[in-house]
Structure formats: C-alpha cells, structure tokens
Amino acid sequence: MLDFNAEKHYRFSRLLVEQGWTFRRETVNDRDAADRLVSDSIGPSAVGPDQEGIVAVAPNGRIGGVIRYQALYFPKGVRVFLRAVAVVGEYRRQGIATVLINLFGTVLRAHGNPVAIGNCEQRMRLLYEDCGYRVLPPGMPFVDPVLGVLYCSDQKFDCWFANV
Ligand SMILES: CC(C)(COP(=O)(O)OP(=O)(O)OC[C@H]1O[C@@H](n2cnc3c(N)ncnc32)[C@H](O)[C@@H]1OP(=O)(O)O)[C@@H](O)C(=O)NCCC(=O)NCCS
To answer: How far is the centre of ligand 1, averaged over its atoms, from the C-alpha of 137 (Å)?
Structure first.
C-alpha cells in the first residue's frame, strides 16, 4: 500500500456512517443486486464467478455500491485482481467508492498484503491514488515478476493501477 489520503477517507466514511450507510462483506443474498449494479454500470462481462465483494448498503437497505475482487494463485505467487467498482448513479460523488476501495485494503492486509491490481479509466486516477494505488498512464503495460508484462486489453479502462 502506497500513501493514501486519510483525511478524504475519514471525511467520506464519517458522513456516510452518520447518514446510516453500512458496509459489509457481500453475502449470497446481496449477489443478484450487486451483479445487476456491476452489469449496468460497467457491462455484463465484468460479472464473473469466483469473485468476492464488499457492498455499501444505503439507509433504505438498497445495495448502493459494490467492489468485486478475485485472488488468483500462480506458481510464483498470488495476485488479487480488482474486478469492478460500481456505485448507483444517484449516490455517486459522496465517497462510497473511496470507502469500498479502502475496506478492500483491510481485506488485503488480513491476507498479508498481496499485490493487488486492476484497470481503470484515466479520469479516475485520483480515486485510486487517494486510496494508495499507483496509476500508470493509459496503455502502459504493468510489469510484474509473477505475471510478466500485462497489457490493457480494454479500450475504456486502459490504465493499470496497483498497490506496489
Ligand atoms: C467510478 C465510480 C465507482 C466512483 O464512485 P463514487 O462513489 O462516485 O466515487 P467517490 O465519491 O468515492 O469519488 C472519490 C473521488 O474520485 C474521483 N472521482 C469520482 N468520480 C469521478 C468522475 N466521474 N470524474 C472524475 N473523478 C472522479 C474524485 O477525485 C472524487 O473525489 P471528489 O468527489 O472529492 O472530487 C462511479 O462513478 C461508478 O460506478 N461509475 C460507473 C462504473 C465504473 O466506471 N467503474 C469503474 C471505475 S474505474
């Protein structure tokens, strides 16, 4: 984990919790609503099996945000892929994604802080940097001792980010 913006995380999480938002590990009961949110926000291909998640639950009980990740085990080590972050349109810019990404960080720490990587749009750079990730310029491959040279295959989400 690189430097992150503690003030922003604290400000967002305090306001959300005061408003009645809760954050929890995704359960089977959350799965359909979370799948729909990911599919509607990013696309059906972002929904996949063997992913775990954390959900943000609005004061009215609705799933308002989700982060999905997947640990993959390679001969030389483990890598955690951040597969999707999605927030319902009307709840955006209140810090929900920031809090979800930082809670994902606590999951990583509980597992010995493995390398975590993902793809994002360049305009979301600050979102990930404030959460302690390094964001590479669009199109630049991510070079990793475990995975080798990874190119971004997606036209839209064309930046790699990583916690190393
Ligand atoms: C991307 C997404 C998850 C952000 O969720 P969010 O809860 O609105 O994000 P936050 O409120 O935590 O934003 C934190 C910071 O990220 C950056 N950010 C968030 N949305 C942004 C946008 N549309 N454009 C530029 N920067 C943005 C800002 O720096 C923001 O801080 P600020 O509001 O103080 O300026 C949400 O817009 C979404 O679901 N989009 C569609 C799905 C998607 O594209 N997911 C993949 C993201 S790479």
So the answer is: 18
The rounded distance, in Å, linking the Cα atoms of 21 and 57 is 6
Burial 112-134 (b: 16+ CB within 10 A, else e): eeebbbbbbeeeebebbbbbbbe
Per-domain residue ranges of the chain = 6-162
Q: Which structure tokens are listed for 60?
A: 């009215």
pTM over 0.90: yes
130 neighbors 5 (Cβ within 8 angstroms): yes
CATH class, 6-162 region: alpha beta
Give me 104's structure tokens.
């994902």
| Ligand 1 center to 135 CA (angstroms) | 15
Residue 94: DSSP 8-state: S
Mean pLDDT by 10 residues, the chain (164 residues): 87 97 97 98 94 98 98 96 98 98 95 96 97 96 96 92 97
CA 78 – ligand 1 centroid, Å: 28
Question: Using a 6 Å cutoff on CB, does residue 97 contact ligand 1?
Answer: yes
